[in-house]
Specification:
- The chain is an all-alpha fold.
- It contains 3 helices and no strands.
- Helix 1 runs antiparallel to helix 3.
- The chain is globular.
- It starts with a helix and ends with a helix.
Amino acid sequence: MRILLARAQLGRLLDMSEHDTVTALMIPFGQTGFPAAGQPITYAHGLDRMESSAPPEPKSRDLIHRIARDL
């Protein structure tokens, strides 16, 4: 059940990222050296620097697709 929910959430994120007003950026779990590394997901200070640490949107979308597929 949790896997289906996670897959559905990732699918929704991908659907929303198709809108012109939405940008989906994903920082891979193993990446270090960016603000908030190791902090709870609610940590927002330094968000602009976190965004610059993420792969470009097409690569971030590919990562989301891969994670959803591998679930």
